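Entry 0007
Protein: Solute carrier family 13 member 1 isoform X2
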Amino acid sequence: MKLFSYILVYRRFLLTFCTLLVLLPLPIILHTKEAECAYVLFIVATFWITETLPLSVTALLPALMFPLFGIMSSKAVASSYFKDFHLLLIGVICLATSIEKWNLHKRIALRMVMMVGVNPAWLTLGFMSSTAFLSMWLSNTSTTAMVMPIVEAVAQQIISAEAEVEATQMTNCSGSTNLGLEMDECVSEHETNEKKEKAKPVTGHSNDAGKTSSKLESGKNAVTGTKYRTKKDHMMCKLMCLCITYSSTIGGLTTLTGTSTNLIFAEHFNMRYPECRCINFGSWFLLSFPAAIIILLLSWVWLQWLFLGFNFKEMLKCGKTKTVREKACAEVIKQEYKKLGPIRYQEIVTLILFVVMALLWFSRDPGFVSGWSALFSEYPGFATDSTVALLVGLLFFLIPAKKLTKTTPTGEIVAFDYSPLITWKEFQSFMPWDIAVLVGGGFALADGCEKSGLSEWIGNKLSPLGSLPVWLIILISSLLVTSLTEVASNPATITLLLPILSPLAEAIHVNPLYILIPSTLCTSFAFLLPVANPPNAIVFSYGHLNVMDMVKAGLGINIVGVAVVMLGMFTWIVPMFDLHTYPSWAPTVNNGTMP
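Output (structure tokens):
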């Protein structure tokens, strides 16, 4: 028993030592560059999946092991750790820092929710839409962390308002000899109908859930320890939590900068296929935006049906008196928006720079017309999306936000300097350096696989898969990625699989985009577990959910996500990149060797 406790305490150390030892025969016995690179690849993959070491620390292993095995020089492998991706990330983080510093994200979220109204179903869609929109430009984690306090305030305000109304009704009717009859007389007809609707079984739940919808729920919030007033209140809290975390993930799909996995794919693709130049901000948006919209709407329908039922008649009602729940919800959102005050100069400037950055990204090389990059035709491919991000990002350090004043000995207040929109210290607090190192390690790993010949070897061994239908290969790779990303971090998953999937596509003579695009999108589908990604963990920490709630809801959205991605790969995405044709920019495999 004591031995077991020691093993449990030092399990990470033992796993690290055992992994290095168990895999050691691979480079010793085979003694080829491919085997030595595979040894490094397996070690990094094991440590990323088990998180024996911090992800960023594991990402440094190629820099240590490749020079020792003679795969790449230390100087060459070090250059792999800083790419165009990192410059793009720096510019985007400058924008995100200013947006969050001046509360522009909160104003956008509340305004979008106010636009859709306070009907419970439409309110949920409003929160999902605003969260998804913010997640297009900010990190999924920061978006969730920002929106959840607003959602929690709305939910608690709704619950407390309904409790006060019921308490008032009971007080007004107390002392009556026939309580049930008196209640009918003192409650308005609208509120009576509302109570009757509450007593009906809710579509999408068991009969027990419907029967207890107007009774006290015996369960408690795992964090606060407070009881839920009704079953419906508990379900509403679960619905709102899940709609925030899932919509932040879905919104991140739509732009290259929306999530790190998209950026990792773009950098890997442009490095491996430099002659393509077909993946940029505009082309990615056009291929992913329709998929994200469909997934978002179907997720809304699924979550609404699963937790509260889907009442079309209630949703489509117009001009009728608002319920107590809707009035309470409208009031708390209105008060939150009032707290922001009138829009400030700093918010306006941030919004202008945000729009300018987006327009420059879209217009750089739209594809159907010549973009502004044509002005630099002497240097084709030199100006990229990172150029735009850096240009706008530097402006945040230059444009004045407010004057800095001091008091002179005579008591006069004078300005002596100005403060820019963001400072370097504020930028550093937002910059995800761990992701930057993690991604750099992935690029180094990919370069090592290429230099050692491991990528070519993998491609040759996977070539028999060419006998399978293309749709089946895409489905298998999508399901593999979706399953792996539930237990490993999203960046680690895509970084690990891209060097394997690219040679697979080349070996079976299929356009690499056919496999890489769906695999990249599916890497974000970490919906099942609280530990699958940070947004899931944030909403889980509020105590409304249990693991089975997330598994039940996430499984449906995983199925929806994979199905929509598969649909897109055979409809609107095909003509964008001519996916049915093997491109000239991709290498070919002839008789087991690469030219």
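Curator remark: The CA atoms of residues 83 and 440 lie 8 Å apart. The longest strand covers residues 400-407.
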